Each structure stands twice: as C-alpha cells, then as structure tokens.
Amino acid sequence: MSIALPHPAALLREPPREDPPPPRQPAPSDAVPASLRWLLPWTVLFLAMLVPMMPGLSAGWMLLLCQAGIAALVVLGLVVLTGAAGLGALGQAMFVGIGAYASALATTRWGLSPWLGLGAALLSAGMAGALVGAVTLRLRRHYLAIATLAWNVAFVFLLGRVEGLGHLEKLPPVVFLTLDFATPWRFYALVLAALVAAVAMTSGLLHGRMGRALHALRGGSRAAEALGINSFHIRMLAFIYAAVLAGLAGWLQAHLDRGVSAGSFGVDASLNYLLMAVVGGSAHIAGALLGAALWTALHAPVQPWLPPLLGTGGDVDLVLSGGLLLLLLHVAPGGLWPLLRHPFRRWLAPPEPEAAVLPPGETLPARPHPRPGAELLRATGLRKRFGGVLAVDGVGLTVKAGEIVGLIGPNGAGKSTTFDLLCGVIPPCGGDGVLLGQPLRRAAPRRLAAAGLARSFQTVHLVPGLTVFENVLLGTHLRGRAGVLRGMLGLDQREEAVLHAEAWRQIDRVGLTPYAHRIACQLPLGRRRLVEIARALCLDPAVLLLDEPAAGLRPRDRAELMDLLDDLRRDGLGLVLVEHDMDFVMRLTDRLVVMNFGTELAQGTPREIRRNPAVIEAYLGGVA
Ligand SMILES: Nc1ncnc2c1ncn2[C@@H]1O[C@H](COP(=O)(O)OP(=O)(O)OP(=O)(O)O)[C@@H](O)[C@H]1O
After folding, report:
1. Atom 28, ligand 1: which residue's CA is nearest?
2. Does the beta carbon of 414 sit less than 6 angstroms from any atom of ligand 1?
3. What span, in angstroms and rounded, lies between the C-alpha atoms of 454 and 227?
4. How many angstroms is it from 395 CA to the middle of ligand 1?
5. In testing the pocket of ligand 1, which one of 415, 458, 459 has its CB within 8 Å of the most ligand atoms?
6. What ligand 1 atom has the least distance to the C-alpha of 578?
7. DSSP 373
8. Are 447 and 513 found together in one domain?
9. 12, 416, 548, best to mutate for ligand 1 pocket (most atoms within 8 Å of CB)
10. Which ligand 1 atom minimizes the distance to the CA of 386?
11. What total of structural domains would you count in the chain?
C-alpha cells in the first residue's frame, strides 16, 4: 500500500499546464554564416579608422571622439562588473584618477617615459582595485554601491588636501619611436588601439570559463559556491579588471589633456560612466561603446549652449539628461543596444551553440568513482543550534554508492538544517561527519563540490536570462582550468569545446535537448528542476543531494524524475533526498531517516518505516 499524505506544499504546486511548443529550429535561410558575421565588426572598425580622414572635422570633434573612446574603456569595465556579475559600483572615476595621477607623477616628477607611466597607471589602478575590493566586496547590493561612492569622495577630498596634487601640468606627449601622439588626430589612433584590445579581451573574458563564473553570481552566491565557484575571488577579479580598464582610461585622459586635475575624477564623473552603461545597455559590450559615444556626443556639446537658450543659469543640462534617462529607462530598460540591434539580429545575435560531442582525441577530467556499496558519507551525532532553538540534535546518516537515502519528517523537524549541514552551508555545533574524505566541520560548499558533492535547491536557483544550455554549462566550472588570461587571449577554445560537449551530454541525459536554447527560467517548474539536476551532474559528482525535488511537479514530470533518479542510482551515485511526497519517497529510496523535533526518530527501509509505530504516530498520522 502506498502512503500519500496531503501536504501544504501541494497547495503551492503549479497548476497542470500544457508543455510549451518545442523550440523553433532556425531555418537555414535565417542563419548568417559564421564567416560573414565577422564582416560587421570589421566594417565598423574600418569606418572608425577612416573617421579622422573625414573632410572638415574640427579638432574639437576629434577631441570629443577621443573622450568617447576613453569613456568607453571605463564603461567596458562596468559591463563586466555590473552587467555580468551584477555588482553595483559607483566609484569608477576614482580608478581613472589613480591611473591618470600615477602616470602624471611618473612623467612630471620622476621624468619617466609615458610608456612607463602606462605601466604605473595599470599597476596602481589594479592594486587600488584589489585593496578597495578586499575591504568593500563583502558588502552587497546598495551597501556596495554606497561604499564605492564613499571611496570616490574620499579620493577626491584627499587629492585636494595634499599640497601640489590638486593640478599637475605639462605632461609629456606619448611618443612611439619617432611618432608623437600630440594632436587629437594622432591620439585618436592610440585610443582606438586601446579600445580594440579592450573589446577583444573583454569579449574573450566574458565568453570563457571565468566569464561564466561571473554570470553565475547573478543566480546568487549560494548557488555559485555549490558549483565550486569562489564567489569572493570572482568578484575581486571583476573589480580588479574594471579598475585596470579605468586606469588605462586615466592614462589616456592624462596624456590627451597633458594635465590632470582632482576635480575631473569626482562622483559626477562616476555617475556619468554609469549613465553611459545604462543608456547603451550594461549587459552588452556594444552597449558600452554605444552608450559612451551617445552620451559624450550629446552631452558635451549641449552643455554650454543649453542654459542661455532656455534663459536659465545653472545645471539645466543635468535636469534634461535626468529626464531623458528616466524616459529611456521606461522605453528600453535594458539600454538602447538591444533595441537597435533587433532589426539586425540575424547578423548580430550570437549563433546558438550547436549540440556537440567530445572532439576526437580530447578527454574530460573525471574523478575515479567509488565502487557500488562503498561508503560516501558518514555523519554522526550532528547538532545545530540557532539561538534558543535546537534545530538538529544528534542526527546520523550514512550514504553508499548506488543507493538513495530519504530524509523525511514533519514541518520544522530539522530536515533542511541537516541538509545544509551536509552541504557545508552552515557548520555543525556538535557531532561530525566525513563526506568524500572531507570533514564536515570545516568544509565550505565549494570544497565539498570539488570533492564530489552536488546539490539542488528547494527553490530552483537558475541564472535569469540564460538559456538551458548556458545554465547547465555553469556546472562545468570545476572541470576546466582556463583562467582570466587564457580567456582574455582566446586560448581556451579546446577546453571550451570539451566543456560544451559535457554540458550537451548532461542535457541529453535528463531529456532536455529540445529545450536547450530556451530561457531556463521561463520553463515550467519540472523542467527547471531538471536543468538544475543536469547542471549538478556536470560536476561529475559522487553524491547528489536533492532538496524537495518532487515539490510542485505534475504527475508526468514526477514519474520522469523518478526514472532519472533511478538511472543515477544504477550509475553508482549516492543520493540523498529531502522530500515530503511520501509516495515518491517510499517507491524510490533504499533507506529512510525520519526526523522529528530535530532528533532522529527512526532509520530503516521504506517497508520498516511504514510499520514503525513511532513514525506512524508522529508523522504518518496512522495513514499507513
Ligand atoms: N536560520 C535559522 N535561524 C533560526 N531558527 C532556524 C533557522 N533555520 C531553521 N530554524 C529553525 O529550526 C527548526 C528546523 O527548521 P528546518 O527548516 O530545518 O525544518 P524542516 O524539517 O526542513 O521544515 P520544512 O519541512 O518546513 O522545510 C525550525 O524550528 C526552524 O524555525
């Protein structure tokens, strides 16, 4: 006899819905061949190179073009920081200032060449990024934004107070061999070269393993850490990268103006960079270029003549640009680039990655899997206290390869707390355990992930805006080795092909291939849970912990999930399920641990548990 208890979770279930239609496969005529896709960026670059040759172009306009390119460098940093990693930073002008002042001091005070000044600018901006990041990045959301703003204010205040640092003049021009970049026309070439390099490197970074880790942060640190991603480390990387780009911009600005002034690097400049990112679209590299170009081209020339035209004094341009920004946020919250590219999406949208198998001769790093029956997890006497609440008191659990263990109990019994103790999310107050050789007492989630533990979440944690394929690919983080430099220089292509093949294999394993190019968060709950499981399987785990995997599923999805978990057991994985669906648990698990009021009420096979009088009284309510 099966036991089916009504549970409040049932009330939260999504009403049965028809499956959405299968994704439309792009017709061959839709697709622009990969070789032609290069045509557009190369044409834009070619046109950009021709700009200085335009007849009648004044020095003022050339200067403006240079300034737009310099600003675009800072905004590219914001694309990494804000667009990809979701970190709000409001003090980028400080790093521009640090780069500018480093080169100004190096060239005017110590007589070094501007090229050594460039080294000083990049180094000091990077070091300042590391220092500010180390003390600021523990903060979240608006606290982080306010803290970066405060750093910016303090920086300008300090510069103004130090004797002789308010203004530095007579910086030497940049000279390469015999060619000096003293005129705006020549300087433009320097800016363009810096911008092309920065765009190529940022694109390489964002499309590689580290860029994926940055995107994973938008799904929450907890989910990222469970995939083996060191979220603080990744945040630091993004922060330092953006600071170095800002330092480069500062160097260019200082040698374009041939002078530096503390007032140019204030909070208003930082806000301008942020506005450029918002106007163009902070999630897109092209958005950074567009935003910087539009903002500089419209803002700077309008600034002098607007107040006299309207018959007012003061900062009327600020009011106008604020109003325009509000309008823009209403019409195009993602910035102008997504709107503008829509008619040209055949050319501009990145091609959908095709299903791939492991390239010949390539191998994917895999852990030696324990033989069936080998012990993977042993926990004894686990205790956890939250203030006055003893949430878990003396719970023990073992899991072997090739078995499914269920953790059940009434609401508030301590199941989720035990689950979090096993995942390393919270440390135990007492008791101990070993999971794949790692002591649970000190194990952080990402260490356990590296040891072979993967998990799902009670509320599905997927990265918004990413497709099923992209979400699943995040799970391969620990299977790759490519770091920032390899990504930036595009030297990670072979490894990427291998990781892509693994993601496709796991998508196929859970039956999601037809949905691979759909936005994952828009799928019905059952499929989203499968995405999470496919992502977890990409870690090549030995133990899989699933938190209420059947909650809210339609009967058909539930049956499919049951088949999948059964397959995983046959493949030798050890599984732990926290679950309220008694029918699901009783049919699937090999052993059950029943909890009540934080303690262990009983352990045994489903058949033993069903007949256990204490369990019937406390939990099953006589339904058995
Ligand atoms: N962070 C916390 N701070 C304080 N008390 C907590 C915390 N987490 C859990 N508790 C308490 O610990 C006890 C066990 O909670 P837990 O969420 O582990 O139970 P559960 O069996 O998972 O319940 P459910 O089935 O409703 O998810 C509850 O009394 C809960 O209020």
Report:
1. 412
2. yes
3. 7
4. 15
5. 415
6. 22
7. T
8. no
9. 416
10. 4
11. 3
Residues 478, 487: Cα–Cα separation, whole Å: 15
> Which of these three, 513, 540, 567, is where a domain ends?
540
Q: What are phi and psi of 392, to 5 degrees?
A: -135, 130
Q: Atom 25 (ligand 1): residue with closest C-alpha?
A: 411
Domain that holds residue 130: 67-348
Whether residue 301 is found in the same domain as residue 322: yes
In a domain, 41, yes or no: no
CATH number, position 613: 3.40.50.300
Q: Extract the runs of DSSP E, i.e. beta strands, from 442-565.
A: 453-455, 543-547
Please tell me whether residues 442 and 475 are part of one structural domain.
no
CB-ligand 1 contact for 391 (6 Å cutoff):
yes
Amino acid type, 100: A
Q: Is the CB of 407 under 6 A from ligand 1?
A: no
Q: Which residue do the tokens 């669906």 mark? A: 581
| 3-class DSSP state of 601 | strand
Q: What is the CATH number of the domain that holds 256?
A: 1.10.3470
Query: Is residue 10 one of the residues assigned to a domain?
Result: no
Q: Is the CB of 417 under 6 A from ligand 1?
A: yes
CA dist 477 and 456 (Å) reads 16
* C-alpha span between 148 and 611 (Å, rounded): 61
- In short, whether 596's Cβ falls inside 6 Å of ligand 1 is no
CA distance 35 to 406: 53
User: Which of 7, 383, 386 to probe ligand 1 with, by most ligand atoms within 8 A of CB?
Assistant: 386
Given the CA of residue 409, which atom of ligand 1 is nearest to it? Answer: 21
Q: Of the residues 509, 540, 571, which one is the last residue of a structural domain?
A: 540
Write out the two tokens for 294. 């539009």
Q: What is the pLDDT of residue 620?
A: 66
Q: Report the C-alpha gap between 297 and 573 in whole angstroms.
A: 59
**385 with 510, same domain?**
no
Residue of minimum CA distance from atom 16 in ligand 1 = 414
In a domain, 608, yes or no: yes
- Tokens for 391, please give them: 């949430």
Q: Are residues 318 and 386 in the same domain?
A: no
Coil vs helix vs strand at 477:
helix
Helix count and strand count (H, E) for the chain: 26, 14
SS3 212: helix
Q: What is the predicted pLDDT for the residue at 25?
A: 44
Rounded average pLDDT per 10-residue block, the chain, 624 residues: 36 39 45 67 85 82 93 96 86 96 94 95 97 88 88 91 86 89 90 95 92 89 91 93 97 95 91 90 91 84 65 64 76 84 71 70 76 88 90 92 93 91 88 82 86 89 92 93 86 88 93 92 91 94 92 86 93 92 91 92 91 81 51
Distance CA 65, CA 53 (A): 13
Nearest to 250 by CA among 172, 191, 179, 167: 191
Residue corresponding to tokens 């719970």 = 395
Statement to judge: residues 414 and 475 lie in one domain: no
Judgement on whether residues 292 and 436 belong to the same structural domain of the protein = no
Do residues 92 and 246 touch, judged by C-beta distance below 8 A? yes
Measured by CA distance, the residue closest to atom 18 of ligand 1 is 414
545 alpha carbon – ligand 1 mean position (Å) = 18
> Could you give the 3-state DSSP secondary structure of residue 120?
helix
Atom of ligand 1 nearest to the CA of 384: 12
Name the H helices within 258-284.
Answer: 267-280
The reply to whether 185 falls in a domain is yes
Domain identity same for 604 and 510: no
